[in-house]
Amino acid sequence: MKTNVAPEPGSARPYTRRKRPLLQRWPVPVYLLVADITVFVAVAVLQWPHPGQVLVLATILFCYWLAGLYRSRLSLSLLNDLHFLAFGVLGGLVTELATRGLLAGIADDRELLRRALTLLVVVVLIRGLAYTTVRRVRRTGQVRHPALILGAGHVGIKLCRTLQEHREYGLDPVGFVDSWPRVEKISQLPAPLAGGYEQLTQVIQSFDVRVVIVAFGSVREEELVAMLRTCDRMRCEIFFIPRLFEMNYVTRDMDEVRGIPLIRVRRAPYRRSSWTVKRLVDVVVAAIALVGALPVLAACALALRIEGGPGVLFRQQRVGLDGRQFTLLKFRSLKPAAEQESATRWNIAHDCRLGPVGRFLRKTSLDELPQLWNVLTGTMSLVGPRPERPHFVQEFSDRIPRYMARHRVPAGMTGWAQVNGLRGDTSIEHRAHFDNFYIENWSLWGDFKIMIRTLEQLLFARGG
User: Fold this and answer.
1) pTM
2) Which of 52, 157, 222, 357 could in theory staple to 307 by disulfide, Cβ–Cβ 3.0 to 4.6 A?
3) Cα–Cα dist 353/212, whole Å
C-alpha cells in the first residue's frame, strides 16, 4: 500500500555546507584549463620556442572546448576523452604546419611529429592525474555538492542509493521533494523527504542545494516546468532523467550515473558570464545611440510640441524584471483624457485624436527612442520581452499559463516576439510563448540577430 499522505514541511534537517580549502573552491574545468596551458607552455619552451606557439595553443584549447573537455561533468573518464585529446593536438600540429612558411624557427615534419607526440603523452598523463585527483577528493568528502531529487519513485530512489554508494560523483542526496511519494512508508526512503513540490524554492534555500535532479514523480510535467523556472535565479544546476532512459543513447552533452543518463538544463541567462557582456553592450550601444540620435530626438520633440502643446514625453508604469514596476519613457502620441485611460487602454493605433506627427512616430517606432535612457539606466535592455502595464499583467497572468515567467529577464526595447510580427493587436498567449522561448534559448548571437531584424523592420517602417 503506497502512502497517500502529503509530506509535512520541515521534515528534514538543513544541510550544513562545509567550507572548502581555497584551492578547492574553483570548478574543475578551471583547473583543467590551467593544467593544459601549463603543460603546453612547459613542453613548448623546452622543445620549440617560436612566435607561432600562441596560435598553436589557441587552436588546441579551442578544439578541447569544442569537444566539451572544459564543461562541468559528473563522470570523468580518460579513455572517453583520449581521442578528443589526440584530435586537439593534431589540430595544433596542422596549425603549425600551416604557419611554417610564415614563421622562422619551425622544424621539419619528422621533428614536428615527435614534438606533437611528446605533447600528447604529457597532456594525457596530466589529465589522468587530474581526473584521479578529482575522484579522490570527491570520495574523501573534500568536495561535495548537496543534491535534491525531485520524485520519490523507483528511479529517484535508485539514483539516490547509487549516489550514496558511489561518492566519486561528488553529490550528496540531501533529500527528496515529492507531494505523493510512491513508497509504503516515508522511512523506506534512502534520504529524508524534504517537502512537497510547492515547497521547492524553500527547500533549495534551506538545504543550500547546488544540484537538482528531476526523476519521475507525482506531478505533471507542465506543472514541473513552472516550478523549475523558479530556480532560474538560484545558484543550482538542474538535471533531468529522460523518459524511456533505458533506451536512451548517451551523447557527449549528457552526464551518466551508473547507467542512468542525466541531461543538464542550460543555465539561466543571469547565471552565465556572457550576461555581463549583454549589459555592457546595452550601455555602450544606448549611449552611442542617444548621442547620435540627438538631432532626431530634438526634431521629434519640436514636432510634437507644435502639434499638441507642452509635455512631449510620456511616462508610464510598466512591469519589468521579477515583476517590479518601472517608469517607461516614450514620445507622447496623444494626450490621454485621464490617467486611467493610459493605464487600461490596450491600443491607440486607430484613435481619431492621433495627429499626423503622432501617427508617423508610431509607424516608424520613433516614439520609442526615449527608451534608450531606460536601457542606459538599467531598467530595460535593448533586447528582451516587451514590458506591459500592471493592469494587463494582472489580467494576462490570471488566464495565460506561464505568462509571469517572461519577467525572468529585464524587459527590452525589441524582442523575439516583436520581430516575428507579434505586436499590436496580436495573441498575448503567442507573445508569452515566444518570450519564454527567447529566455530559454538566450545567447549573445541571438540578441544580435534580433537587433538586425529589428533594424530591417524599422527601415521599412513596420512599426505599431
Assistant:
1) 0.73
2) 357
3) 55
